[in-house]
Each structure stands twice: as structure tokens, then as C-alpha cells.
């Protein structure tokens, strides 16, 4: 069953299927929420906020309309708003970069020094992304780590597609400028996910 069929069944009263829907998005939601909380040092709240996100989604499922957005876009929006609300409660201004489990893996023939450099590069890129303003940070996380398309990001952020492209352009330029003193240009250009698209 795809998401639409599951949601239709759930709306018709087969509420046990909601756990199946949650399983499909649990890991992505956890990674996204964790990354947003990380720079504020609140990552220990990630599990609770993911649960709250799914609870809110369940409570509002009757009002969900696929005509307006896909389920994944809708649940990302709920997750983002839940995190922002918690951060406001905590009186924390900085919204962090999610720590994605996606670390570049060195091949077997890569020297240990190269693996260490790669790992250090990843940390530097994450730090640079953490320094971005909220909307730029969220846009780049959703695009580069979660691989969402421009339309989905625009729905989540409540921005036009052209605004999202502009946010991503400014975010990439800012990251590039922050990293220029650290990376040689050729190394930077090779870093996966940070190329202008």
C-alpha cells in the first residue's frame, strides 16, 4: 500500500495502520529533528518531539488533503513547527544542523590519513551549515541531506520555489565562503552535495 491508500484506510477507521505509516517516516523524522536540535544542545529531546510530531499528525489526519501536499511534506512541516515551538520555549535562538547518519565512508584502499581528512571535512561543513540563518539552514538540510525537491521544500518552509532556490544559493555561497580558508578549491568542489545545482 502506498501512503495515499494507507491514509484512506486510517481515515475509514483502520487506525492500526497508522503504525505502518509512522514506520515509513520514523528514521527520517528523527534525523531531521535531531539535526535541528543539535546546535542548541537539545538533541536529547529528539525522540519526544518525533513522538509529538506523529501524535499531532494523527490528531490532524482527518484534515490532511493530498491535493495540498504529500504526506511526507505535511509531516516534515509539522516536525519543523514542533521543533521551532520547543526552541522558542527553551528561549534558544539558534536552530541547529541535523546530524545525519550519512557519513562518507572511506573505501578499503583509502589511507587512514585520507579517511581522517574526509571526516574532518564533514565536521567543518556541518559547522558552517550550523552558522547559517534558520531558513537557509533548514533549506540546505532538506535539500542536501534529506534529498527533497524544491517544491517539497517550498511547501515545508511556506516559500515560493524561486525563494527556496535563492535561499539555497545564498546558503551554499555562505558555506563556501566559510570554508575557503580550510579547503583548497578543488577539494571543496568535489565535496558531495555542496555543488551548485
TrEMBL record:
CDD domains: Sigma70_r4
Gene3D superfamilies the UniProt entry points to: 1.10.1740.10, Winged helix-like DNA-binding domain superfamily/Winged helix DNA-binding domain
Domain of life: Bacteria
InterPro entries: RNA_pol_sigma-70-like, RNA_pol_sigma-70_dom, RNA_pol_sigma70_r2, RNA_pol_sigma70_r4_t2, RNA_pol_sigma_r2, RNA_pol_sigma_r3/r4-like, WH-like_DNA-bd_sf
Domain RNA polymerase sigma-70 region: 21-91
GO biological process terms, semicolon-separated: DNA-templated transcription initiation
Keywords: Sigma factor, Transcription, Transcription regulation
Coiled coil feature spans: none
Domain RNA polymerase sigma factor 70 region 4 type: 124-173
GO molecular-function terms, A-Z: DNA binding; sigma factor activity
Record family assignment: Belongs to the sigma-70 factor family. ECF subfamily.
Name of the protein in its database record: Sigma-70 family RNA polymerase sigma factor
Species, as recorded: Paenibacillus urinalis
Taxonomic lineage of the native organism: Bacteria, Bacillati, Bacillota, Bacilli, Bacillales
